[in-house]
Specification:
The complex is a heterotetramer, with two copies of chain A and two copies of chain B. In chain A, strands 3-18-17-12-11-8-7-4 form an eight-stranded parallel beta sheet. A four-stranded antiparallel beta sheet of chain A has the order 5-6-16-13, with no helix packed on it. Chain A has nine helices and 18 strands. Chain A is an alpha/beta fold. Chain B is globular, with a radius of gyration of 20 Å. Classes of the chains: A alpha/beta, B alpha/beta. The interface between A and B is large, with 44 and 45 residues. Bound molecules: flavin-adenine dinucleotide (2 copies), flavin mononucleotide (2 copies) and FE2/S2 (inorganic) cluster (FES) (2 copies). The site of one flavin-adenine dinucleotide has 22 residues of chain D, from strand 4, strand 6 and helix 2. The site of one flavin mononucleotide (FMN) has 26 residues of chain C, from strand 16.
């Protein structure tokens, strides 16, 4: 039996396998390509890019935590113009499918970044989808994360949607740090997002008990890794269930949070994810995006399941 | 002077061939032929810790002490500094460990014979013997200074059989009482060295740079920043470094380092276990504010 | 140097050491007393008790997760009358200081439980404080957890406060599953809570990938253990910072979430906790409540810090 | 027949004295004198897994195979069923492991000589040899039935030197082809046993109870529910058991069990890896609703 791992992200976007990198955990491709061919990854999700170059925060930028880590990078990156000039052509040159993650300090900046990206010569050939990282701070709204507020979330999407051809689906990336994630999901989808990515990191703090001060230079950090997988599965479950119940518009979900093995990827899929990203696990095993896809295929094969896509959300039926 | 930033990184399950105490440290030898074949002094490896049931996800980085491409062995020297390194120091011959490498940019080696001074602090001595050999093979005169807090934390004094050696300890338990940088000026003058290489704690690297700079001596330093990935994808290991274009960037010490030209490192931003972003750094909040201000001025004209 | 570990919970409640058990992780004392003397524990926090006996949920009631676990017990317990008749006298007989955790399906039930507790003959001698577990579902409000809503949180406190003498402080126990925990903290404190316990578990789901269905009988579970410690530290930090800034009333915080060692306890203290509970770690090491207190004392001793209470919130000053 | 529910529980770091394969299982002997002195057949121990860096917090439970109070040793038999047990099966002599015990209520042993049948399924055989000995010492006649899926998963057939033994395997690779319960009725009849003891998978325990009950034979079963704490504080390991007062309660198998009178277990609530709360269970949602309904009726009168 051959297993068909095709992942369907909607709007005609089919990926050869459902295992993607997570934004910010694989840079923009060159570094991971030193380990294996990134064109073989379902899709390569790039580090969230803003308009201008970003230095990011001071260090320490990370703290290891039990089965996870905190990070406080501050979206260090080249800015969209350098990205379009250097990174996108390189991704194209190796034949990678890219999902480009965009960010901004204002909804207008998101739109500006999207516009510059869509205008890039390599856009059509390389960019399968755009991930709108609304889990970042909205400077206009006291630094509150967009995705903590339905109105701010919707506003970003409303400004980005007109900039992007409909054949390139927009995935809004949500934070789990909210009282009801289905409210934010609805706001983003109603404003034109064609899919959701869940979850971004959880807000956390680590205290340096020797120096008796916050360990991270930026005080708070984002908690990621296997430690948070139960929260990711819950968020995906809740939003998928709301879609099934007709309470919010139906759209594909990309699952992310603590995936380390093929079985973990299957778990998120059964909860409702149409594809799955691998983030922090890359730091433990840089070959994990490839390995997880292989393990997932092997699992399906061993259980006699011919098509990955048939498994999406199946745990809701049992 | 070339770098290997674009070369292949190997991820291997390596068998531990030997493990033995070396003062306060543990000296580990493992079999990783791909890494042994490709590595050069100044590069490092990253080891996964804790085995199958581990709650510690991140790899731990170690300078490569030396390699033997013939036998395929790679050696490291490990201090017990916390739960991850403790796990490593308990490995015994026959066990296996996940190793990633070779990582980072090696020390640049001159094409012409050049007198050099090499300085190692604590386990920072580990790569210096191999580097010394590579330099000597190029015809360079090499002086070696090893320093540590105490004799037990001095690594490799017995390994420096073919290199003139100066030893310092903070407490005087071995060699000269003082810092590893104390004998540096004299050594540079007497040997006529125009190149220095250093590996050790950040304050030492800064001091080495400060001694070398006024004397016109290039100091290459191997820094040790906290790393989550070791391969350039996470952006946690940065420090401010001035580029060839004169612009300061937050540079990843795992792929753009760990070896840097000390003169290019913005040491003043590094203090008390923290690294601040200099105001003139590319993309710093301060520089972006200035940019926006200029743009606003421009549009108002 | 002798280290003074006294913990100050306000209203004259001083505990000999700041390490407590977490509600639901130590039952009502008898079982743990088989390992060591529970009178030596700073205070023994009992399992949340409702009015009537509770069977709890079906099983599986737990799933192990990386550095943590999910539980879905459903507040199994004897009901307040049996508690007052059997458990409280036993706690008194061994000389334990108890903090009794109460719960209810309606705010009226909380008040009823508090009333029955205060009326107990052993109340004055044994109960140092009451923990009001508002992180449980409010049946009247679609099963939404009280502590997810400021108004519901306040209502519970408003009904419980008149039932309890002011010398027995009320600690409201908050869930981290909210967009802004300082809003809930303010609601509870303004309604009369004299302290806060943070955090309860995070909502999570685990899928059984073999059977392709939710693993827990009750579908969702609460995530606990070292995995969530960075979230607990963050919640404590945010609320303590809001108190320092005068944005919400000042009151003692009892920290809980992922504490396993003396150093972990110190971390929560430096973030703002006046005492610390040990929960899931008990399942790994049933002696941990005693061990953590000992390790904390040793840490302070080694660093030459004479008084525990001087460390509360100190990381905010650095 | 007494229980030890109120006795002291010991938490010890125990040295592994011996570890060896036994078919598909691993047979482990460790030194834990306090536990060896206090334990009785049917009790269990809980082991912490993964060592210092472990991401697996919960202990793993194992029936005590036997103890030797003289040498202070405790023995268990472990199947590799997942990451925790895998870690345990890799322990070697000389290593240490955290052990908690003795836990749970032992099998009740009759005061008078009574003919008994003992049944062990898979690693469920482990405690049966020790139990057989204790029963024989009391003058009881003991018949033993061991069953497993395959010969490799049959534990201890060689240990039953002093007990009449019947062996069954599902695939016929050893003994009679069939279930461990197949020979039970005949054995009960021929031996005149009025007591049965069983340890193994839930469906087997249910079947044993179903065979025994109509014959007036008491069946004591050691159940295996997923446990987080093993000491009665977490409430995860419950199953519905009818008390002496006729009321069903969700009872903790770690402190009120793991041995139960099979006739008191509400088997019909246990199926497909799940245990439901019977409607008539104390404090069940159904019974509380009825209670509230009655109260409402009462107050409206
Ligand atoms: C390029 C490089 C080369 C190194 N070479 C050596 C060597 O040859 N011998 C040696 O003994 N040590 C070396 N170190 C330091 C070694 O990596 C740390 O001591 C180790 O990571 C600490 O892990 P831990 O679990 O024992 O301590 P913990 O403090 O518990 O570690 C917690 C986290 O912080 C990180 N961390 C803590 N301290 C350091 C540090 N000093 N540098 C980097 N990350 C840190 C760890 O990787 C981990 O993610 C090197 C570090 C780097 C970056
Ligand atoms: C009273 C008792 C006696 C037991 N005696 C033995 C014995 O003598 N020999 C033996 O090999 N095994 C025995 N078991 C089963 C053994 O505890 C499990 O196989 C083991 O916990 C599985 O852990 P794992 O990490 O390998 O598997 P995983 O499936 O990864 O475990 C995940 C989690 O589920 C729990 N779990 C999974 N399966 C079981 C199970 N069957 N029973 C209880 N908890 C489970 C684990 O404790 C852990 O918390 C006994 C269990 C109980 C409750
Ligand atoms: C170091 C690091 C950097 C990250 N940077 C980004 C980012 O730039 N944009 C983004 O949307 N998410 C970012 N994330 C979040 C991840 O994409 C992912 O949502 C989260 O880490 C959970 O997945 P994981 O547990 O597999 O890591 C980052 C995570 C880490 C650990
Ligand atoms: C099995 C279990 C049962 C719990 N029961 C309760 C409870 O009855 N009432 C309550 O307020 N919290 C309960 N909790 C939450 C804990 O008290 C604590 O807030 C949480 O587990 C985080 O702390 P920890 O990581 O130290 O366990 C329970 C937690 C667990 C794991
Ligand atoms: S350690 Fe990840 S970029 Fe350097
Ligand atoms: S396993 Fe915790 S109560 Fe039984």
């Amino acid at each position: 039996m051959t297993v068909d791992l095709t992942a369907d992200l909607g709007h005609g976007v089919l990926l050869p396998n459902p295992v993607l990198t997570a934004s910010g955990c694989a840079a923009n491709g060159k570094e991971l390509h030193r380990l294996d061919d990134i064109a073989k990854i379902g899709a390569f999700v790039t580090k969230s890019v803003k308009r201008d170059p970003q230095s990011g925060r001071g260090t320490p930028r990370m703290a290891e935590t039990p089965s996870g880590m905190l990070n406080s990078i501050g979206l260090q990156g080249p800015g969209i113009h350098a990205f379009v000039e250097h990174d996108l052509p390189w991704l194209r040159s190796v034949g990678a499918r890219a999902i480009v993650s965009i960010a901004g300090e204002s909804s207008a900046e998101f739109a500006e970044v999207a516009r510059a990206l869509v205008a890039a010569p390599d856009f059509d050939a390389t960019v399968a989808a755009i991930e709108v990282n609304i889990s970042c701070p909205n400077v206009a709204n006291r630094g509150l994360v967009y995705a903590c507020d339905p109105a701010s979330s919707a506003e970003v999407l409303r400004l980005v949607v007109p900039e992007v051809p409909r054949s390139t689906p927009l995935f809004a990336k949500l934070t789990p740090d909210v009282t009801d994630i289905t409210v934010i999901a609805e706001a983003a989808l109603s404003a034109g997002a064609q899919g959701l990515t869940m979850i971004n990191t959880l807000l956390g703090i680590r205290i340096d008990t020797e120096r008796m001060r916050p360990h991270l230079f930026g005080l708070t950090g984002g908690l990621s890794g296997p430690a948070i997988r139960p929260v990711a599965v819950r968020a995906i479950w809740q939003v998928y269930a709301a879609m099934r119940a007709g309470r919010i518009p139906t759209a594909p979900i990309i699952g992310v949070g603590g995936v380390r093995t093929g079985e973990d990827a299957l778990e998120l899929t059964l909860a409702g994810a149409s594809a799955v990203q691998v983030g922090t696990a890359i730091f433990n095993d840089p070959l994990s995006p490839w390995r997880v896809a292989r393990e997932l295929g092997d699992l399906l094969h061993a259980r006699g399941i011919p098509r990955y896509d048939d498994l999406v959300g199946v745990a809701h039926d049992h | 002077m070339t770098t290997t930033a674009g070369d292949r990184v190997h991820s291997v399950r390596a068998e531990v061939i030997a493990a033995a105490a070396a003062g306060d440290y543990r000296h580990l030898v493992f079999l990783a032929p791909e890494i042994a074949a490709a590595a050069r002094p100044g590069q490092f490896v990253a080891l996964a810790v804790g085995g199958d049931t581990s709650g510690l996800l991140l790899r731990r980085s170690f300078s490569i002490h030396r390699v033997d491409p013939g036998t395929g062995t790679v050696e490291i020297v490990v201090a017990d500094a916390g739960p991850g390194t403790r796990w490593i120091t308990r490995l015994v011959a026959g066990e296996a460990v996940e190793v990633l490498g070779p990582l980072g940019v090696p020390f640049p080696v001159p094409d012409e014979p050049t007198p050099c001074v090499l300085l190692g602090g604590g386990y920072g001595s580990a790569p210096m013997f191999w580097l010394a050999k590579v330099l000597q093979d190029k015809g360079c005169h090499v002086d070696l200074v090893l320093g540590a807090a105490t004799q037990d934390r001095l690594f490799g004094a017995d390994l420096a059989d073919r290199v003139p050696l100066t030893v310092t300890t903070d407490d005087g338990s071995a060699g000269i009482t003082g810092r590893v940088t104390d004998p540096l000026s004299d050594l540079l003058r007497t040997s006529g060295a125009t190149l220095a290489y250093a590996c050790g704690p950040m304050p030492m690297l800064r001091a080495v740079t400060q001694v070398c700079r006024p004397l016109g001596v290039s100091a290459y330093v191997a820094v040790e920043e906290s790393m989550a990935c070791g391969i350039g994808v996470c952006m946690t290991c940065v420090l401010p470094v001035v580029g060839a274009d004169g612009v300061t960037r937050m540079s990843r010490s795992c792929v753009e380092g760990p070896t840097f030209d000390g003169a290019r490192v913005r040491w003043e931003a590094i203090a008390d276990g923290r690294v601040a972003v200099p105001g003139d750094c590319l993309g710093s909040p301060a520089s972006l504010a200035a940019l926006n201000h200029a743009a606003a001025q421009g549009s108002s004209r």
